[in-house]
Design goal:
This protein has 484 residues and is α/β, with parallel strands linked by helices. It is built from 13 helices and 18 strands. The mean pLDDT is 95.
Length: 484
């Protein structure tokens, strides 16, 4: 058994782990990252940007949301189920974190909203080449990795951690395994940042209301199997709120695919009974929509448009766009539609009548025909069911009908390890476990019960900011222990 010593051990080399390692190293600690993958970044390599409030970029563009306003929105949205002190520290630090990243050479595009009803807190990373978009944050991960190496952080790739080493109630190290065999690393503090359980159908089924592949079609970033959460629990950590970072996509299409474009609009959504079930104008908020879809039979819904609506989108553009889909148009949709028609599809349907559409989709025929007839009448008189604005109500009376199936999806998981506002891991009685910290997705229970999409950038934002907190607090803990 090989043994090593360091000051701070970081389990996981994603955004939170890199932020923790860099911060600890900047505060004078010797740091080792143990990462089971063959590269750093984890799910952050798929991300776009992070939350910032009162940043210079916002002020330069007259984006006036204050930290106080953001905090109030966040806590109202979560109905104060979140750790209020932790949320405040996160939001208050967020502007400084953007500058901290900029000092590393990270560039940001314009601070963005996720959808028109949200705030422009999403600081999307500007790649060195190309437009900002999905996976843009990989550029940030590269800069953070280089900064960590510059500070002397030891990054051990392909080195999965098997468990924590505990002595007299204190966490003093971690047991791991690399290509050369088993090893133990001892340090003054351990920070868990392993990215959650999004790649574990077992965790998802056990700790959330969903079953992957049956009523949930979420992203699965390889390796995010709840390892860090489990090792923290094994060491005495309390369990905190756990769920998925829910959105809604057409199953097995990759999410925000061009085939979805004309269907993520405020038209008609129906369930398998052929009945509308919510005000489709809130389709722009993924959480509102997925919550409504999750209440339907088999947790599926269908967005329906006709050829007249399709033509309107071709000529005038979409009713609603968000920053993720703004770079796509109907030409992208048409190209993907042809592929679905050519290869066959279990999510996209075209029919010459509502009766045929019902047969193809499995929607109740009588319910669909009656529901659409009622909706068409309300397009003239007003939405008596859900008060949808008339400007979004266009009757479905064309000669061809199109439908896309939607179901719950998720970018990843949320929560698991209970922490306090110092990012210290605590047990179920809220007693701290000395020497143990957690950050990022493993400990992100602040989005509770829903992801706070009105302040976009919370997953990556919480990861980087809580990582910075954990790195600083771990070094303080070590220094205080040495001074005793």
């Amino acid at each position: 058994m090989r043994e090593f010593e360091t000051d701070v051990i970081v389990v996981g080399g994603g955004a939170a782990g890199l932020a923790a390692a860099i911060t600890a190293a900047e505060n004078g600690a010797e740091v080792t990252i143990l990462e089971k993958a063959n590269t750093t970044g984890g799910c952050a390599n798929m991300a776009m940007g992070l939350l910032g409030v009162e940043t210079k970029l916002q002020k330069e563009r007259l984006i006036g949301i204050t930290r106080e306003q953001a905090y109030e929105k966040f806590m109202d949205y979560t109905h104060w189920r979140s750790d209020a002190k932790l949320v405040k520290k996160y939001i208050d630090q967020s502007a400084g974190t953007i500058e901290w990243l900029q000092d590393m050479g990270v560039e940001f595009a314009l601070p963005s909203k996720y959808f028109p009803g949200s705030e422009a807190t999403w600081h999307i990373v500007q790649p060195k080449s190309g437009k900002p978009g999905l996976r843009a944050a990989a550029t940030m991960i590269k800069a953070m990795t280089e900064r960590a190496e510059e500070l002397g952080v030891k990054i051990m790739l392909e080195t999965p951690v098997k468990g924590l080493i505990k002595e007299d109630g204190e966490i003093i190290g971690a047991a791991a395994k690399d290509k050369e065999g088993d090893l133990e690393i001892f340090g003054g503090a351990v920070i868990i940042t392993t990215g959650g359980f999004g790649d574990s159908p077992e965790f998802i089924e056990k700790y959330t209301p969903y079953e992957w592949g049956k009523d949930l079609y979420s992203y699965r970033i390889p390796g995010l199997t709840g390892d860090g959460i489990q090792m923290a629990w094994d060491a005495g950590a309390g369990k905190d709120y756990m769920d998925m970072e829910l959105v809604f996509f057409a199953p097995n299409t990759g999410g925000y695919a061009p085939i979805e474009l004309p269907f993520r609009q405020p038209n008609v959504f129906v369930n398998l009974d052929g009945q509308r079930f919510y005000n489709e104008a809130v389709v722009e908020n993924p959480v509102f929509s997925v919550n409504a879809i999750s209440r339907q039979k088999n947790r599926v819904a269908f967005s329906i448009v006709d050829d007249k609506i399709m033509k309107k989108y071709e000529e005038n553009g979409f009713d609603l766009i968000n920053v993720v889909t703004s770079s796509m148009d109907m030409n992208d949709f048409k190209q993907e539609m042809e592929e679905h028609l050519k290869n066959g599809s279990d999510v996209f349907y075209v029919a010459d009548s509502l009766e045929e559409l019902a047969e193809k989709t499995g929607i109740n025929k009588d319910g669909l025909i009656a529901g659409i007839a009622q909706y068409n009448d309300m397009c003239q008189t007003g939405d008596a069911d859900f008060n949808k604005e008339l400007k979004y109500m266009t009757p479905l009376d064309g000669s061809k009908f199109y439908a896309l199936k939607f179901a719950p999806s998720a970018y990843g998981s949320l929560g698991g390890i209970r922490i306090n506002d110092m990012t210290e891991v605590v047990d179920d009685s809220l007693n701290t476990i000395p020497g143990l910290y957690a950050a990022g997705t493993d400990a992100n229970s602040v989005c509770n019960p829903d992801y706070v999409f009105v302040l976009p950038g919370n997953t990556l934002g919480f990861a980087v900011n809580s990582g910075r907190m954990a790195g600083k607090n771990a070094v303080t803990y070590i220094k205080e222990a040495l001074a005793e």
